Amino acid sequence: MNSNSEAQNMRVIGIDVGTTSARAGVFDLDGNMLGHSSHPIDIHEPRPEFYEQSSENIWEACCRSVKEALQAGNVQAEQVVGLSFDGTSSVAAFDAQDQPVSISPTGDDRWNIILWMDHRALEETELINSTGHEVLKYVGGKISPEMVTPKLLWVKKNLKQAWERGTRFLDLTDFLTYRSTGIDVRSMCTTVCKWTYLGHKNEGKGEWAQDFFQSIGLEDLLEGDRSGRRIEAMGTRIGGLTAKSAQELGLVKGTPVGVGVIDAHAGALGLLGGALHGKEDPQIELERALALIGGTSSCHLAVSREPLFLDGIWGPYYSALIPGMWLTEGGQTTSGSLIDHMIEDSQAAVELKQEAKAQGKTIYELLNEQLLELGNGQFDPELTRELHILPYFLGNRSPRANPDLKGVISGVTLDRSRQAVALKYLAAIQAVAYGTRHIIESMNAGGYQIDQVLVCGGGTKNPAWLQEHADITGCQLHLPREPEAVLLGTAILGAVAAGVFETVPQAMKKMGQSEQIIEPNPQNKNYHDKKYQAFHKLYDHFVELNSLLSEGSK
Q1: pLDDT tens track for 52-82
Q2: Distance between CA atoms of residues 37 and 306, nearest Å
Q3: Which of 7, 125, 328, 448 has the most crowded Cβ, counting Cβ within 10 A?
């Protein structure tokens, strides 16, 4: 690392592309965010469960966010010594001239990205899983329609012209590093987690399972530049910003760019540094820690020294988060989106939104106040004793690994009042937390010893969400000093690419720290243990009813 005097003036940038916005954050080398900015990005929905985006729209939002973040932090472009990108695991298509290729049934080249949450490839997912190929061992036993391989198989089968025109298919993160440097380097994180690249093969350099792609009729994905020729670990310096991208971003030509990661994985990098402080053996400590990155969906990431094969939990992925360690990844397809749906799917929602705006509060603050009123001045989780939610409104990512599952609400009445909305809101928070408990229990049964959860995302600003997750999982909840952990994690990779840290764990330990710990309340354990049983029974009954109605059907 450089001298203290030099380091004090150095800045790094993390650029995050989530589902609905692109954001940028400027950090010093102690992990303090000096300035940030965000811009919305477009989502196109030509058919139900078809979700598409535009690479140009995303790049423009990134550029605007970086320029404004520099300005907000009073940072000069010359101070920035490195940057990196993260993005949702969405796939972008380009032709031989690097022009967008439509993956949309509309044929409009503007829409050249299939978004992660797109479920158009359900048939292709079933086909891939029917092969029983060895690569499926490294995605939790079943591939998901959220992953890239089924999506590209759908494109080949349904949009033949797009498949023929497409000479380069990139994970969103890899598109961003390619666009910024002009050098096509794919991330070990994106390719191992979403493209079935086997990172542990070839002495840790990785390799494609060519017979797998042949078995599903997608062997031509491995031709030319379609899946990339060079795959590197996160934080590896790809090269410097081109003159064009530097101008568009408001930075200096040649500024080092590091290999990026998926957005949730960036959050894990920003969080897990909090588990390393004062610890002699970081690998052992990391096996006790879970990074929970909340948002529209939620991701649950943990790393181990040895590969752990867990049914319904994605992975194990080699070197996909911490180089040399194995990553396993649980997740909930609907988490924040479920909580918002319970609020918005009510007559009182409009009134609540208007009141929140008038009072300068969030709608969650108003509902938390309502819960306190219903609990006679105390937060009472037992208000939902007769109200239960199965949160699989867009299927279950893990550990059931079934994209066809549906949500269930039990115990509703004709009540349309604000009180009724507050109860559904609380039940939704609890349902998401029970899903997290289910994931943690599955991980611990498979070899982990998770007893601490490091969290980031919108839920961390909500005391009801935090306490329910602590009480229901029985784990300590660690809140990071820097709440924008995703941006911090990506900035950490920029710092490694710049050479100011030798390894990713060194940068994590220096730049990422926990600030607050929330302990489980033992008084609520008995109630949540019983309601967790009800959570599983609700699933069993749903499966039983579906089976009953499918018997003898045409």
Answers
A1: 999 999 999 999 999 999 999 999 999 999 9
A2: 39
A3: 328
